[in-house]
Amino acid sequence: MADRHRVVILGGGFGGLSATHKLKHAPVEITLLDRCNYHLFQPLLYQVATGSLSPANIAAPLRQILAGQKNARVLLAEAVHIDAANRRVILSDGAVSYDTLVVATGATHQYFGHDEWEEFAPGLKTVEDATAMRGRILLAFEAAERERDQAKLKAWMTFVIVGGGPTGAELAGALGEIAHDTLSHDFRDIDPSQSQIILVEGADRALPSYPPKLSEAARKMLVKLGVVVRTGAMVTNIQAESVTIKQGDRTESIPTRTVLWAAGVLASPLGRILSKEAGATLDNAGRVVVNPDLTIPGHPEIFVIGDLANFSHQTGKPLPGVAQPAIQQGAYVGKLIQARLRNKQLPPFHYFDKGNLATIGRGAAVADLNWLQISGWPAWLIWVFIHLLYIIEFQNRLLILLQWAWLYITFDRSARLITGKNPLPLDL
Amino acid sequence: MADRHRVVILGGGFGGLSATHKLKHAPVEITLLDRCNYHLFQPLLYQVATGSLSPANIAAPLRQILAGQKNARVLLAEAVHIDAANRRVILSDGAVSYDTLVVATGATHQYFGHDEWEEFAPGLKTVEDATAMRGRILLAFEAAERERDQAKLKAWMTFVIVGGGPTGAELAGALGEIAHDTLSHDFRDIDPSQSQIILVEGADRALPSYPPKLSEAARKMLVKLGVVVRTGAMVTNIQAESVTIKQGDRTESIPTRTVLWAAGVLASPLGRILSKEAGATLDNAGRVVVNPDLTIPGHPEIFVIGDLANFSHQTGKPLPGVAQPAIQQGAYVGKLIQARLRNKQLPPFHYFDKGNLATIGRGAAVADLNWLQISGWPAWLIWVFIHLLYIIEFQNRLLILLQWAWLYITFDRSARLITGKNPLPLDL
Q1: What does the pLDDT look like over B242-283, one tens digit per residue?
Q2: For residue B66, what is the nearest residue in chain A, using CA coordinates?
Q3: Is A36 on the interface with B (CB under 8 A)?
Q4: CA B236: distance to chain centroid?
């Protein structure tokens, strides 16, 4: 055991876990390191933020996932530095040596140099982000119920979502349902269906990464849920009680107390460390430009995969920051490590694009399967099926299915808790 | 509507909600005020703290519960003062006037004058308490996995629960299961079943409010789960790395990093305000001594119910701080308010003791139904049935049942997330 090849994997997301699984029967000693003790199914995080699911439904303890994989150990720790020269990962409280390193620490959101916006426009990357966002949305309705001033009331009942990609569109759709259905009988002084939900997107259509036909289908679904879609619009300022939008030459300030941030991805800071310590090249978003085999130049022992990697060899542009590339890259790295142990090589990584899915509310979704583009009910059923399939842990599949069925029938979102320190003072 | 009798109910727990429900068809205008936006089913809070259930499973949004009760409105606010002379409740941001006031703000835990213990020995009254306790328990095992020093390792794997009432016994039982079953394959360097779990109780037996026969049955169940039950033992000090226990003349310091507090109840601070503003009498635990009709002397318009009330007219001592008295008192107050509106009176409140139940792990519980005292499997089935019956919201019943069935079969606790700011630094 002592002289086994040591693989250290940073990050227990889709990429890191996929690499770990692929190495299950390999003669290696794996250390999977993460700051969280669970794997998070990020594609459903917006459902926690909008009260449909509980955090535990979309998170599975890493130790439990890997309980049966004897060559893997889990370390709950934060990697603060990579000492590439000595092949060591420096933790906040110790160090781990590696023979092969897989960096899969993903990305977070960024505010394009306006970090001061974060306070007013929370993003959605972690469980804590999701419960805080849920609290803000619910508190806005609570505040509205007690507000007498008409202008202030309107600001509480106006929700602006910045970014019209899948996360933004899904958030907007869920908010539309909350306002029109879930909360419809809950208040006495306000009518939640009078809420204004505005989705702001810089490109000329929502879901710009989808074919135009599906963007248009998504737009129609959003409008049906009462969402105003503003395309070609840039956010130029966010303050406690307003957001400023520039559309062409026109600048407009929208009074709102709730801005949700679904734009701007910034790669994990470990990219910058790899750049400094191992000479890796970063792109604009801080992603590490990788070789065709997902290593970094000059360091065949360091792989970078998932949202942190910029792999442009196939299409000339980086792969999208979703689960599929990360999963496939993790599996590729697992295979390559084993091939190398047998002194073999593999052809370069090749991404197989299975397609993209986004859901816009109950029974409504768009699916781009490359060979088939559909929207509405059939797309939604595919979405449900795929997401249940990929959720790790059988119990969670059952729980999620039950809650979705319940939501579908009753519109009732039961995980509507305001927890933690109130993210917003009710300063009326 | 404007001249309807105004009932203000402080607290959306068992008592407040029961009173609200009883008034459903009464010609009154109810304002239910709570700091949380949900009703919490506290008897199952320990299952959140030990990773079996998610917070949303045992919490139902107050607005949703009361969506159909048109004469009730919910106010998310904190009552900071009661102006009894002018019949007004002062909020942190406003005021509400009442004709009848029902105070049902319950109790929290206390440290018998040692507030400095709270940092090291968290209690269990809120959702936030439960998720923080869950995090501490899981982090202790994580820290143990990385600890090389044998003495320190032992301290991480020693869990001390202070208080051998139902909450303490249930926590200890669940911890025993976690250590012996749930985590058994999760770690590589430690064996969780080597954990020491110590339940400390001041009385001469665990569950002192139960008949001795059931205490003995509970003790046996705890021992089977690897719990050491120390009775006649007082905690005299709690520090970051140890707890000091006095048993008879013997004082002992037990090295431990995880102390859970399940002792010492302190009534809500509104009791003290009622004492100052309305001349109410308080008992040692800060509870308000109430009249036979649950009002306070000199103020027939102010009712105090549930954990905050000391009602000793029936048995000579206060009713236990559990759900049943609160529910029955809430219903009584609801009926009395309606009787008064018709210029009628009611006989004094009478508590009907349906019995007590506590569960000690999988398939093991004790039930004191007064006419019948049982333990083991049959008691556990009664426990499951009763708890599912009293959980508000049908969806939660299904979800809880499914998760219990899963837990029963697999020992797997899926809600094992460490969330929020790590309650404990991993300072190894």
Answers
A1: 999 999 999 999 999 999 999 988 999 999 999 999 999 999
A2: A186
A3: yes
A4: 24
